[in-house]
Amino acid sequence: MSGMSSVSGVSGAGGSAHEGLWEHRTEGPARGRLRVLQLYPRDMNIYGDWGNTLVLVRRAQWHGYDVELVSYDPGDELPGDVHLVVGGGGQDSGQSRIKDDLLARAAELSAWASDGVPMLVICGLYQLFGHRFATGTGTVIPGIGVIDAETVAGPGRLIGNITLDTDDLGRVVGYENHSGLTTLGPGARPFGRVLSGDGNNGTDSTEGGRVHHLIGTYLHGSLLPKNPVVADWLLARAVEHSGGRWDPAPIDDTWADRARAVAMSRPR
Length: 268
Description:
CATH topology: Rossmann fold
Strand order of the largest sheet: 1-2-4-3-5-6-14-13
Pfam family, one: GATase_3
Pathway: Cell wall biogenesis; peptidoglycan biosynthesis
GO molecular function: carbon-nitrogen ligase activity on lipid II; glutaminase activity
Oligomer: single chain
Radius of gyration: 18 Å
CATH class: Alpha Beta
EC number: 6.3.5.13, 3.5.1.2
Largest sheet: 8 strands, mixed
Helix content: 10-25%
CATH architecture: 3-Layer(aba) Sandwich
Subunit structure: Forms a heterodimer with MurT.
């Protein structure tokens, strides 16, 4: 039951588009409707992170749910009644461009997280959802403190394929490329324990951070195409937050499984 609309912003069969909003409808009767918000796609969207949004939209359709996809950049009006938030990584310059706006939205985003809105924030946004990020030039970019974590710039980059063992989502694979070294505080638990790779800081075997239904992580690749279990976990929490019932359809994830196997077999 795959939907047919495009997620490029150009309306296709079963979908409509206008500025800042895309609608994607499943074929046949929908089991529910989700509103997905992508944060700062103009500045925080590198290393394939847009692919996470594409996967969430498409898998929601395959499971039988209509999706309204909205985006938010500095200066926009923050949409309300959001069921799932996703954001990507960016260079230090991108983080600097959004930092003031993000701080202005801190109370709303924190309230959403506390209320159980599922969120996936990658790399740069993961860092800024923590307390602060100290750059290599000595500049401190304040974060919004949703995740109990702090990041400082390291002397080099942590780059390569990475595999995690998670408590409830099995093995997770991805690709890390970051110079920030993140340390979790007691108010956050790691996304996973590093089996192969460097993770948050290369020393304590943690990767990412979780609080409420929020996942922060350094895993690019993009993350969700190779980890459909994570995508479906986010969608299930989104459906529940919308007041609906998660009723997934069977999906053939053969290609995702093959991609995972290749990623885990490749050297860093």
